[in-house]
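Q: Focus on the shape:
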Amino acid sequence: MQEFMLIFRHENASGKVSPEQMQEWMKQTMDWIGGIAAQNKFVSGTGLLFDDAKVVHHSKKVTNGPFGEIKETLGGYIIVKAESADEAAEFAKGSPILQGEGNTIEVRKIAKDDGVH
């Protein structure tokens, strides 16, 4: 079994969401993750906030950001166990994040120090 990271990319994340909408989205997300965990295939994960964020550039310059005004932002990730990227993508298809138009989930295999990449 391999591990894959499902990276949540949100388009136009600066849109305002009501507390009720956020609560419903969080419930749907926890139910989705619970379904993966029930198969013993959830490893870990978390959301990412904009608060106190920094970007370090190749020149070593540090700027504030990224900000929600940019077209696409990273909203968080989960790590799942799967036999293949296809199986991990099937998990991703069930995510409530995909309800947002333009939102995507990137599926990436996690490199392990076992000689298999």
DSSP finds two helices and six strands in the chain. Helices lie at 19-38, 85-93. The longest strand covers residues 72-82.
